[in-house]
């Protein structure tokens, strides 16, 4: 794109220069200074065309550079967001694993406590039955 703008600017400068050079070549009254005046006008016009082409090329280069910078910033921003999202997902997974581990541990403790309580109750009941049976008399045959 910049190349096309530079080519267009140079082509227009050359074209403009040719059209302004014609009055100098065709000047018919050098005594009155018409030729000098036409030459100055041609030179001024050529300089203006050159400046315009240069300005256009510079603007095109600046626009291209700005677009490249914006694209680079957008890419960096997208990469940062992807990184943050991945980090957040990793942290969420880690938190979920910790919570699941804690719940499993709590459930295991509750199960162990329930089993312990049931075993104690069964032991107490067995002991009570033994003590009750100790004093019982066996019927005679």
Written description of the protein model:
- It is built from 2 helices and no strands.
- It is mostly helical.
- It has one domain (2-101).
- Helix 1 runs antiparallel to helix 2.
- It starts with a helix and ends in a 7-residue tail after the last helix.
- The mean pLDDT is 77.
Topology at a glance:
Elements: H1 2-25, H2 34-134
Structure at a glance:
89% of the residues lie in helices and 0% in strands. The protein has 141 residues and is an all-alpha fold. The relative contact order is 0.06.
Which radius of gyration do the C-alpha atoms yield?
A: 49 Å
Helix count, DSSP H or I runs of 4 or more residues: 2
Fraction in beta strands: under 5%
**Largest sheet report:** none
Q: Would you tell me the overall average pLDDT?
A: 77
Low-confidence stretches: none
> Tally of extended strands?
0
Quaternary state of this entry equals single chain
Distance between the termini: 120 Å
Approximate helicity band? over 70%
Structural class: mainly alpha
What count of domains describes the coordinates? Answer: 1
SSE ordering: HH
Q: What's the shape?
A: rod-shaped
Keywords:
about 0% strand, about 140 residues, mainly alpha, 2 helices
């Amino acid at each position: 794109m910049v190349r096309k703008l530079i080519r267009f600017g140079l082509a227009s400068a050359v074209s403009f220069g040719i059209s302004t050079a014609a009055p100098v070549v065709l000047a018919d009254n050098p005594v009155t200074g018409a030729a000098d005046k036409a030459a100055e006008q041609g030179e001024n016009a050529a300089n203006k065309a050159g400046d315009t082409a240069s300005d256009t090329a510079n603007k095109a280069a600046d626009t291209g550079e700005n677009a490249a910078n914006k694209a680079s910033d957008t890419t960096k921003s997208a990469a940062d967001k992807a990184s943050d999202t991945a980090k957040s997902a990793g942290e969420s997974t880690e938190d979920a694993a910790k919570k699941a581990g804690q719940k499993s541990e709590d459930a295991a403790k509750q199960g162990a406590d329930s089993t312990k309580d049931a075993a104690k109750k069964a032991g107490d009941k067995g002991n009570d039955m033994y003590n009750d049976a100790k004093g019982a008399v066996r019927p005679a045959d």
